[in-house]
Write a structure and sequence with these properties.
Helix content: 40-55%
Radius of gyration: 17 Å
Protein name: NAD-dependent epimerase/dehydratase domain-containing protein
Pfam family, one: Epimerase
CATH class of the largest domain: Alpha Beta
InterPro entries: Epimerase_deHydtase (IPR001509), NAD(P)-bd_dom_sf (IPR036291)
CATH topology of the largest domain: Rossmann fold
Strand content: 5-15%
Organism: marine metagenome
Family: Belongs to the NAD(P)-dependent epimerase/dehydratase family.
Amino acid sequence: MKGIFHFAAQSSVPLSLKNFYKSSANNIESSLKVFEFSKKFSVPVVYASSSAIYGNLPIGNDQKEKFSITSPYAQDKLTVEYYAKTLFEVFKISSVGLRLFNVYGPGQRSNSPYSAVIPIFINRMLKKLSVVINGGFQTRDFVYVEDVVDVMLMSMK
């Protein structure tokens, strides 16, 4: 085994608000188990963090070490990043956390609590329904799932 890819998480911000203990226990404990396994076998970890840790920072203000935690989910992801840093500082086990933004691609469902905006918009357009953009002043960053896979694979090298 050359490394571990860790994508497991409860990733719904609304669900983290509704039941933050269960959500946080899942996200943090599963990550700690992955890190423990990586330590045991001395292999690196590439894991999914989240853009959620930036919260509502102004556009262009997402520099390193600047956060705006607005949900338990965001706090979970930041906590996992700090554990990953500790894993390296104490045990010299490398990890890479990617702060993913809105990942989209084939197979996404528009009726899931984890739905991203693109499948919701596509579903509404196919049904000839209006697409509500909430005033038109929002800014979003999207990344295609195959690009994420490429970066994850490169990060493991």
